[in-house]
Specification:
Elements (H helix, E strand, L loop, with lengths): L5 H30 L6 H7 L14 H23 L6 H18 L1 H10 L5 H25 L5 H21 L9 H17 L2
Length: 204
Amino acid sequence: MATHSPAASATGRDRAKAERHDSLLREAARLFAAQGFDGVSLEDLGSAVGITGPAVYRHFSSKRAILGAILLRASERLLAGGQRVLQSDAAAGDQLRDLIDFHVAFAIHGSDVIRVHDRDLARLTDDDRAEVRRLQRAYIELWVGVLARLHPGRTTADLHIRAHAGFGLINSTPHSVRSMRTVPNEAVVSDILADMAYAALTAD
């Protein structure tokens, strides 16, 4: 008869807890995006992952803590992904292409998170909001650094405006195309967004 060591059992419990944690964040983002932060109860969150509402407290201290975890994780992933892109020795134009492709993929697969950020950022605790802002500023500076190499004569303010405009173009489209009568293929949307963002960001 096979036996299981306490260490193996603990590892299994830890893995299950981590998976439930991730599921809660994913389902919370979906529900917050669809119904708004105030429109979602702990019971709704628990039901979405097959647990009771009070059981959510085993993973997060509050609904606001869940919101903070969603937006902090997204901001951390964006910054880490942007930093990986810029580890290459590619030319500025190629790095910009890679940054755009990375962000387009994030926007398409994380459109719920983007909607939650746009609508509910102010609901975060002061500490979480400050950290999200810090991470976002660091991510923007990665883009500004690449844009500065492509547009050496432009001011820092100009480059920041360009970066934010690029984000606006990329972030808004994945959600808006869902309302189209015929939803385009994901690859088609990605290509269009990437080409348009690159053209806008490299324009003189």
